[in-house]
Amino acid sequence: MLKIVNLHAGVEGNEILKGIDLEVNAGEVHAIMGPNGSGKSTLASVIAGKEEFEVTEGQVLLNGEDLEDSAPEERAHKGIFLSFQYPVEIPGVTVTNFMKTAINESRKARGEEEMPANQMLKKIREKAELLEIDRKFLSRSLNEGFSGGEKKRNEIFQMAMLEPKLAILDETDSGLDIDALRIVANGVNKLKSQDNAVIVITHYQRLLDYIVPDFVHVLNDGKIVKSGTKELALELEEKGYDWIKNETVA
């Protein structure tokens, strides 16, 4: 589904990604871990097409299609979803209206008619129930006055509504207490299928207790320096990142 080949990218002439190779197949969950400043969020931003990052070499392919010339909204229409580390507040736009607009814009991009109002309402109710979201929550302004846990749960609700092919969760666990973490992780697990894939970016093993990855990749200084199974995340929890850095230097 996602294939990244020798990806080099940076911002304002500062190279951050220094040759990333990664393949993610449908039905898989990949965790990307690494110390601060290793390039994890930059990788997520480049896949999603954030324009401040410049790709200087390499390719990002989604189902065999090169995304180089695709704007962020085009990538979203093709099925890429990025959950933000710090979701922004949008006063005056309700959660429900935001979702209606997002879904209908994607349908329009695919040459489809707008989703009928009764079908949209049914879908909103089903996904809210799936993620244990109170109906009152849906009529609030997007992220305005939301707690950290509510913001993250709202991101997963958006993911449930949009049904992306590839979901990238950028440090979704940051700032969450254990109950909020469990609810968010349960939502992700309920949405996993053989037709979609998930990339989880995290510092900590604790999220991976709930969202169990098929593969774990360690990013350091803009490169994937080690890959393995979920046991690698446990090893990182126990030993930290210094042994990986030392191994890389050696």
From TrEMBL:
Keywords: ATP-binding, Nucleotide-binding. Gene3D superfamilies: P-loop containing nucleotide triphosphate hydrolases. Residues 2-246 form the ABC transporter domain. GO terms for molecular function: ATP binding; ATP hydrolysis activity. SMART domains: AAA. Belongs to the ABC transporter superfamily. Ycf16 family. This is Fe-S cluster assembly ATPase SufC. The gene is sufC.
